[in-house]
User: Fold this.
Amino acid sequence: MRNIFVGNLTFGATESEVRSLFEAHGTVDRVSIVTDRDTGRSKGFGFVEMSNDAEGDRAIEALNGRDLDGRNLTINQARPKEDRGFGGGGRGNGGGRGRYDRY
Assistant:
């Protein structure tokens, strides 16, 4: 299975639009456009899963840089999300006043 990153999508791009682009190059198992969890608005990127690696590679080659609604798509093989470790400055990480900090 080939998991493909699709970047630089317009905020109005739909899963069916993206699916039809990729179906011209093979069988598409799943399409997901990433949205902001608070607003539900597209973040401008998504992922396509294709069951056949060769078809996925052909789709990447054919569609990377292609114009969709006035934007050049960035398409490549998706990489696993990097481990960001712990931290980030939230409560309890040394930043700000915690529950037991009374002045």
Summary: The domain at 2-77 is CATH 3.30.70.330 (Alpha-Beta Plaits).
